[in-house]
Design goal:
By secondary structure, the chain is an all-alpha fold. It has two helices and no strands. Helices cover about 50% and strands about 0% of the residues. The longest helix is centred in the middle third of the chain and has 53 residues, at about 40-95. InterPro entries: ESAT-6-like_sf (IPR036689).
């Protein structure tokens, strides 16, 4: 069995970076899409339109990919958080009652020692002046014979 360690803060920080990049790229393709080659010479305008269309599509794709990365990281952070909480609850449910209210040390240390409590009282000791019970004789053999352990007669 393998374990997964995830730094929630690092994951959410990376998601914010990807989200910011997606926002910047979204604005870039929209600005590029809004430009025209009309003030240029016809040959230059045609080349510009070809360039612009290709780059609008490419920047739009990269913006969409960046946004998908941000959403994936946000989903991962939420999932790790839920898994960690579920794992904590399962571990806590396996602990003795005296430890149930203690927290689990994220650095891997042992849980704190429980506070002593009176708890249930033990079975009382018999009085010192009483005599031990006298053994009683066995009622004798059973009226029904037992089968032979060897299987023979």
């Amino acid at each position: 069995m393998s374990s997964v360690e995830a730094d929630w803060n690092a994951i959410t920080a990376a998601a914010r970076i990807w989200d910011g990049a997606a926002d910047g790229l979204d604005g870039a393709w929209r600005r590029l899409h809004g430009t025209t080659g009309s003030p240029m010479a016809p040959d230059v305008a045609a080349a510009f339109e070809t360039f612009r269309e290709a780059w609008v599509d490419e920047v739009k794709d990269v913006a969409t990919t960046a946004q998908a990365h941000a959403e994936s990281l946000d989903d991962a952070a939420a999932t790790y958080s839920a898994v960690d909480d579920a794992a904590y609850q399962r571990i806590r449910s396996l602990m003795p009652w005296s430890y149930r209210d203690s927290s689990i040390d994220p650095d891997g240390g042992p849980p704190p020692m429980p506070t002593p409590s009176a708890g249930p009282s033990p079975t009382p000791a018999p009085p010192a002046d009483s005599a031990p019970a006298t053994p009683q004789p066995s009622p004798g053999p059973s009226p029904t014979p037992s089968p032979s352990p060897t299987g023979g007669d």
